[in-house]
Each structure stands twice: as C-alpha cells, then as structure tokens.
Amino acid sequence: SQQGEEDPQALSIQEGENATMNCSYKTSINNLQWYRQNSGRGLVHLILIRSNEREKHSGRLRVTLDTSKKSSSLLITASRAADTASYFCATDVFGNEKLTFGTGTRLTIIP
Amino acid sequence: NAGVTQTPKFRVLKTGQSMTLLCAQDMNHEYMYWYRQDPGMGLRLIHYSVGEGTTAKGEVPDGYNVSRLKKQNFLLGLESAAPSQTSVYFCASSQTGLAATNEKLFFGSGTQLSVL
C-alpha cells in the first residue's frame, strides 16, 4: 500500500500566491523528501527533512514535519508559472532501501 | 554530464513480446532503481540494485527481471509483456543507499511503454 498520500490532489493558484500541499504517511520514517515532476519528465529532488527535524527551508520552499501526526507540508512562496508541476512526497524507513512515493499533488500556477 | 539516461523513450509492444529497457548513469553511483508510474498511484518500486552484480525485489517485481552487469548500467526486462505493464518506467540512481542520511535519488526522463 502507498506510504504517502498528498492533499490536495490538484491545486490551482494565481501567480505570486503561496501554495501549500500536504503529505500524510502511515509508519515511522527515517527521512521524508519532496520531489517535483514537470509534465513528461523525470522527478527532481527538492528538499529532504530528517525525522528529528521539524522545519527546513530552501529558497522559496519551506517544509515542515510533524512525526506525531505523521504528516508533512510543503509551502512554495511567491509562486511562479515555472512552478507548475506535480509534487510528490517520499519516505524511507530505517534499514530499508526502498523510497516510497505518495500519489502527488498537481499544482497549476495561473499567470 | 548526462546524469541518468533511459532508452528507449517510447515503445509499443504486443502482448507476449519481450523487450529490455536500458538505464545508464555516469555519476558512479552504487545504487540503482526501477520504478513504474501509473495514474493516481504514484511511483512503485519494481527492482533495485545496491551495487554491480546485485539485484533485489521491490514492491511490484512480478513479470520483470533485471541485471546489473556493469556499475553504470541497470537493465529492466519484460519476458512476456502484458497490458497491465502499460506504464511509464523511471530509472533512478543514488550515491549510497537510503539508509544513509541525506541521500536523494536522481531520475531519468522515463520510458513510456504501451502493451496492446
């Protein structure tokens, strides 16, 4: 079964607004990562947050992790048309080499 | 620096035909992975390799075989294709395994496979 579930499945916002997407998972994790996938392309790594971290920033990206609720959120500030893509969370568990992906959020930025 | 390269990019097969998907990486990574992506299901791990000459099963290995004869190449084979194997296939690699901290995957651009 899927480890991660993203919410919402699809999101459309105006350029310049902030976009927030959420990820929930089922079991205790080692790390949680977020990836971006542009249409017809492979996935690109955005940011990784460890299970003992609560918040992490990278440029316009802010990721939070709440291990008590088994959830994470990805915030993209001041969105741009180029941010239009699908976003996936992915988790790994201790001692396991498998990275398990969620079902993704499709983000559309309206110019 | 090409990163992870997948060939072919598109392929159409008839049920029962066989084919091999090739993945090549030029980053000297130890770990390589094959995923399939289906609508509404995210990516699912088919097989992976932790080094040259090794392979291991992932979440959905049935109907697929893999080989890692050279460190830079990871081959995915379909011996007798079925319509259920219609999907987009992604190869990925990483320097070390996920058990290491801060490891991330580098992905190829995918192979779109249709089985009629």
Radius of gyration of chain A in whole Å, from Cα?
13 Å
The main sheet of chain A comes to: 6 strands, mixed
What is the H/E string of chain A? EEEEEEEEEEE
Mean pLDDT of chain B: 93
Keywords:
heterodimer; A: 111 residues; 5-stranded antiparallel sheet; 0% helix; B: mainly beta; 7-stranded mixed sheet; 4-stranded antiparallel sheet; 11 strands; globular
What does this structure look like?
The complex is a heterodimer of chains A (111) and B (116). Helix content of chain A is 0%, strand content 57%. Chain A has 111 residues and is mostly beta strands. Chain A has strands at residues 4-7, 10-14, 19-25, 31-37, 43-50, 55-58, 61-66, 71-76, 85-92, 100-101, 105-110. The N and C termini of chain A lie far apart (37 Å). Chain A is globular, with a radius of gyration of 13 Å. In chain A, a hairpin with a 2-residue loop joins strand 6 and strand 7. In chain A, the strands form 2 sheets. In chain A, strands 2, 4, 5, 9, 10 and 11 form a 6-stranded mixed sheet that branches. Chain B is mainly β and 116 residues long. Chain B is built from no helices and 11 strands. In chain B, a hairpin with a 5-residue loop joins strand 7 and strand 8 (73-78). Chain B starts with a strand and ends with a strand.
